[in-house]
Design a protein that fits this description.
Elements (H helix, E strand, L loop, with lengths): L9 H5 L4 E4 L12 H13 L4 E3 L8 H10 L8 E6 L1 E5 L19 E5 L3 H15 L4 E7 L9 H14 L3 E8 L2 H9 L5 E5 L12 H9 L2 E5 L16 E2 L2 E2 L2 H16 L4 H7 L7 E7 L3 H11 L5 H9 L10
Parallel strand pairs: 1-2, 1-12, 2-3, 3-6, 6-7, 7-8, 8-9, 9-12
Antiparallel strand pairs: 4-5, 10-11
Helix pairs in contact: 2-10, 4-5, 6-7, 9-10
Length: 331
């Protein structure tokens, strides 16, 4: 593999603002959202200073990219950071019956099907398709998306080599992978080619199984992390409830009990649980940003306030001492 140690540091190259807006909800994840709802949330994010936007073809079979692209077309390209993903190609499905919706959790017509592809031609085609939907000529960060879910055992090395070629051509600035699987993320970093990896659901108050192996790999290779889905698809976004979702499913009883114990410690320190959830990964020197979704201007404003909230250092000490959440990162 090519050695990129002579290049600018990954954090400098990625240039990722600390708070990013995750745009999976704008692909009608779990429920339909109108164009007007999406526009209001995006406008609120922009007005609040959010300049980091993350999407993917997977989100609503391209709907998220199209909606985000329409919005960002009204903004100066130099003023925001845009990331999307490759690995899933969208192709028209000749078997679509004209009525059925996407079976993967997005309430959109199933007129397209997803096909896996991590070779150089597929990666390039995926980027070109995304650029068309986004209405732009470049993205700042390009991630392999869930390569471990494909049937390609060489998806990570093949995909990263293809991404490195696009980076050398100047078509993207930073490259990496986004996944819920810690082993996949470590393997991505160990190629020596990744600038940044997106850790989904695995660097949170309830599950930090991505560390310390990923921390060690990032330290060796100069790679940075983005923590995504820090609310675990809803459980930690408010006071934990029995009807909440955890990793996109009904929350198990033992996980709910632990979340409530964590919340009790947070409240004893005058901190709301979602603020602690959002800030926890940022304790780690290797985590450069967190990405969270929002459905409304109100949720956008809450998350912006949370990322800047004052949190006493003793909260992290107490969570660690009670063996609820291990203290990571900076002392």
């Amino acid at each position: 593999m090519a050695d990129r140690r002579h290049t600018a540091p990954a954090a400098e190259r990625a240039g990722l603002p600390r708070l990013g807006l995750g745009c999976a909800p704008f692909g009608n994840m779990f429920r339909v959202r109108s164009d007007e709802e999406v526009e209001r949330a995006l406008e609120a994010a922009w007005a609040a200073g959010v300049r980091h936007f993350d999407t993917a073809p997977h989100y609503g079979l391209g709907l998220s990219e199209r909606r985000l692209g329409r919005f960002l077309a009204t903004k100066p390209r130099s003023e925001f950071t845009l990331s999307t993903k490759v690995g899933r190609l969208l192709r028209e499905d000749p078997r679509w019956d004209g009525r059925s919706t996407d079976p993967e959790g997005f309430v959109v017509p199933a007129r397209y099907r997803r096909t896996w592809g991590f070779g150089p031609d597929d990666i390039r085609a995926g980027l070109e398709d995304s650029l068309g939907r986004l209405g732009t000529d470049r993205v700042d960060v390009l991630y392999l998306h869930d390569p471990e879910r494909s049937d390609d055992a060489q998806a990570v090395p093949r995909g990263m080599a293809a991404l490195a070629g696009l980076r050398e051509e100047g078509l993207v600035t930073s490259i990496g992978a986004g996944s819920m699987d810690p082993g996949t993320l470590v393997a991505t970093v160990e190629t020596g080619l990744a600038d940044v990896v997106m850790v989904a659901n695995r660097y949170t108050l309830l599950d930090n199984s991505a560390v310390p192996d990923l921390d060690s790999a990032c330290a060796r290779h100069g790679t940075v992390m983005v923590a995504a889905a820090v609310f675990h698809s809803g459980l930690l976004a408010r006071s934990p409830r029995e009807d909440a979702t955890f990793d996109y499913h009904q929350v198990p009883a033992d996980v709910l009990a632990r979340a409530r114990r964590i919340e009790a410690v947070c409240l004893a320190h005058g901190v709301e649980l979602p603020a602690a959830a959002l800030r926890y990964p940022l304790l780690d020197a290797h985590v450069t940003a967190v990405v969270v979704g929002a459905d409304s201007p109100e949720q956008v404003h809450e998350n912006v306030a949370r990322v800047g909230a004052r949190i006493p250092d003793t909260l992290w000490d107490d969570l660690d001492e009670q063996r609820l959440v291990p203290r990571r990162g900076r002392p």
